[in-house]
Q: What sequence folds into this?
């Protein structure tokens, strides 16, 4: 059994919900000695894709401790709203992971209502999740190359991110899957695969200067890690093999792992997973399909493997409306891992370690009521 | 192979025409019937792109045309014709506008061919690009960024959240010289609006 994260007042594990919040080992809090000072980075600064601030305790070069400060917390009200209106809000919690959020939410609703979606819908959902993973993994590697001012690969990778967006738009109508999934419906029609030269991306690994920025940076060894951060540390954790609703085993899916747990291993995992996702997509057929959702009451959980790890929703449905909704976004766990892995590194390691986790503040700081 | 040589070998990837996108694009009424729009973007038969989140709840009564959503350029500044430096500020986004804004630098779009660049500080910015719904702690950050900019300056509201609040909240309390609707706006509509704002063309 592995810990996945807090979902409402419960702890979600690979075996299901257990009582109370998850039990994490307490981190050692860095205390500055003589000559140390606090350095504030953010909330709005060049180099950050979103607004977030960090309070960094330092002697000038080495980082003793880091705290993340919330700035862009959005309060989203969902209680008592019809399922349709909640779906529109769920899609917009973190648009770069919109397919993951929507599919986890719809799976939770379907489990609450005791419905299994037809095969075509399951296939379409797998295709969406893998296209989203490819785009996000490319973006994370692009951000790493940009942090190193490695400009030709930076723009080659941005080219591929745009190509994936166009493939998604041709398959599902919207570049970020908004409106592609609906209650009792999957709207994507046909699968357009982006043309990605994975061998070209592998050439990044032949640049010693770039690799040096990543190796030994931000080592994660925690057994409660999730997603690429866990797999980079040697843990074979992946919701794709643990969740029965999406039949990944039928597609010959295999987990990619590394062993060092540093930013370089996380990049390697993401790079290999692009190829794994492309292989899965070769065997998937995408067609629109509708199915019936009954008007029942119930409680259900939906979990998917988002590009940055486990993403889960727990819902309680009554009379076609949401009575209760809890979210476990992967970025919340990845921020904890980032903050723990930062002490003992130096300032120049900071952007590489931060980008290697693929964190989105939009989902980490959202407050749902 | 050396990255620089590979870059040259791939040739020019920058495009003059961009592929059509269905959602978001200009919507038109294709059938009669009632629409229950979650953001009141359809009132008295008039579709308001500044309120539309392109959720497809109005389909098939309204359908997409594939034409890029038109931005409203209320004020342009010809002194930015040669170089136009932008400072993006996220006051409460879902990440979508951030990513689409980043993609105007992709080789397909290449914003630099139009003399558009990003700056890391509002002190060097010609325009402030505001994205997202207003969140309480970002109010002061937004005001300070605006005050730090030299004159003349433009404010660009990017995405439906910054324009009208969308479905998730309230828009920032700042007057936009350029309004770019969309959820999120495509790189094409962002780029068209920026080019018009810098030169009036």
A:
């Amino acid at each position: 059994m592995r810990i996945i994260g807090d979902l409402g007042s419960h702890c979600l594990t690979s075996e299901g919900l257990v009582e109370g919040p998850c039990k994490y080992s307490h981190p050692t809090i860095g205390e500055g000695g003589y000559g140390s000072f606090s350095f504030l980075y953010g909330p709005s600064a060049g180099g950050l894709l979103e607004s977030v601030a960090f309070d960094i305790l330092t002697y000038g070069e080495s980082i003793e401790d880091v705290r993340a400060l919330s700035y862009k917390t959005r309060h989203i009200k969902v209680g008592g709203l019809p399922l349709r209106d909640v779906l529109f809000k769920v899609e917009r919690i973190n648009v770069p992971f919109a397919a993951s959020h929507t599919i986890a939410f719809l799976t939770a609703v379907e489990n609450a209502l005791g419905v299994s979606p037809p095969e075509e819908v399951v296939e379409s959902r797998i295709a969406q999740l893998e296209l989203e993973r490819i785009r996000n993994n490319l973006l994370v590697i692009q951000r790493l190359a940009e942090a190193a001012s490695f400009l030709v690969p930076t723009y080659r990778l941005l080219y591929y991110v745009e190509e994936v967006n166009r493939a998604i738009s041709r398959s599902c109508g919207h570049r970020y899957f908004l409106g592609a999934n609906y209650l009792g419906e999957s709207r994507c029609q046909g699968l357009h695969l982006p043309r990605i030269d994975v061998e070209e991306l592998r050439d990044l690994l032949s640049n010693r200067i770039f690799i040096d920025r990543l190796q030994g940076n931000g080592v994660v060894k925690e057994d409660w890690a999730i997603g690429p951060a866990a797999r980079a540390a040697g843990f074979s954790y992946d919701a794709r093999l643990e969740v029965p609703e999406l039949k990944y085993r039928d597609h010959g899916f295999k987990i990619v792992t590394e062993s060092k747990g540093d930013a370089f291993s996380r990049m390697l995992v993401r790079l290999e997973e692009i190829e794994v996702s492309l292989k899965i997509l070769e065997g998937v057929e995408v067609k629109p399909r509708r199915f019936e959702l009954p008007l029942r009451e119930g409680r259900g959980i939906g979990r998917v493997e988002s590009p940055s790890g486990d993403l889960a929703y727990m819902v309680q449905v009554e009379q076609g409306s949401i009575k209760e909704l809890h979210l476990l976004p992967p970025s919340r766990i990845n921020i904890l891992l980032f903050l723990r892995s930062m002490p003992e590194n130096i300032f120049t390691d900071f952007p590489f370690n931060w980008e290697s986790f693929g964190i989105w503040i939009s989902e980490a700081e959202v407050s749902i009521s | 192979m050396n990255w620089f040589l590979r870059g040259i070998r791939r040739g020019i990837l920058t495009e003059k025409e961009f592929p059509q996108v269905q959602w978001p694009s200009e919507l038109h009424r294709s059938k009669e019937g009632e629409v229950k729009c979650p953001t009141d973007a359809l009132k008295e038969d008039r579709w308001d792109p500044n309120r539309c989140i392109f959720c497809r709840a109005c389909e098939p009564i309204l359908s997409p045309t594939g034409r890029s959503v038109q931005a409203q350029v209320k004020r342009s500044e010809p002194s930015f014709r040669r170089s136009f430096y932008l400072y993006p500020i996220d006051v409460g986004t879902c990440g979508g506008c951030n990513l689409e804004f980043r993609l105007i630098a992709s080789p397909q779009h290449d914003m630099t061919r139009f003399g558009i660049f990003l700056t890391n500080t509002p002190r060097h910015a010609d325009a402030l690009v505001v994205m997202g719904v207003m969140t309480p702690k970002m109010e002061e950050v937004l005001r300070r960024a605006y005050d730090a900019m030299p004159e003349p300056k433009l404010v660009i509201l990017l995405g439906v959240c910054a324009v009208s609040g969308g479905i998730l909240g309230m828009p920032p309390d700042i007057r936009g010289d350029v309004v770019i609707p969309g959820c999120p706006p495509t790189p094409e509509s962002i780029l068209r609006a920026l080019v018009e704002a810098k030169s009036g063309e």
In short: Chain B touches chain A through 57 residues (CB under 8 Å). Chain B is about 20% helix and 20% strand. Strands of chain B lie at 27-29, 42-43, 46-47, 62-64, 72-73, 84-92, 116-118, 127-132, 154-158, 178-180. The two ends of chain B are 42 Å apart (CA to CA).
